[in-house]
Amino acid sequence: MTPQRDEDEVWRQIIASYHQPTETTSDNQPWPDSENLPPEPARRVVKRPDVETPPGEMPVQYPGDFHEPDFDDDRNDDEGHYEPPPPPPLPKTDTSTKIAWAALFGGPAYLLLAALFDWYLQGWVLFAAVACFIGGFVALVVRMGDGPPNDSGWDDGAVV
Question: Which of 9, 125, 141, 149 is deepest in the core (most CB within 10 A)?
Fold first, then answer.
């Protein structure tokens, strides 16, 4: 026999013995008897009162059929409920920041509308829309500031 046929024969034996019951005794177990699990206890099956089960069939338990009894009927319903404090008001923005945001979104929005409605754009209008977008972005980045806050004092954190 060739090695391929030997391998095929081994696979056939494995498949043939797949459905045969195995006998497990404490002699051939790789673990001690104390680690064996006990057989599963019988599960409680809850039958829906409105559905009748034909004789000889097992009742079906559906998810959500079992309801935990409520032992704390007299407790306060608000117990453990967290209600966050109201958020602080939004910071007031100055006019130049509002104009920068409008330019940042207005330029591309105008170009998108012009493309959707097939408007004819002259060269200077196209340039103005792109310039508004770039100008708004630059204005917001310049105004962003990357320094420490003014009220931080002399100590600016840990120094290694």
Answer: 125
pTM value > 0.85: no
Contact between 26 and 45 under an 8 Å Cβ cutoff? The reply is no
pLDDT tens-digit readout, 92-136: 889 999 999 999 999 999 999 999 999 998 999 999 999 999 999
Number of domains in the chain: 1
Task: Specify if 16 maps to a domain.
Answer: no
Confirm whether 18 is domain-assigned: no
In angstroms, the Cα distances linking 153 to 82, 144, 156, 157, 159 are: 35, 20, 7, 10, 15
Assigned domain for 19 exists: no
User: How far apart are alpha carbons 109 and 132 in whole angstroms?
Assistant: 11
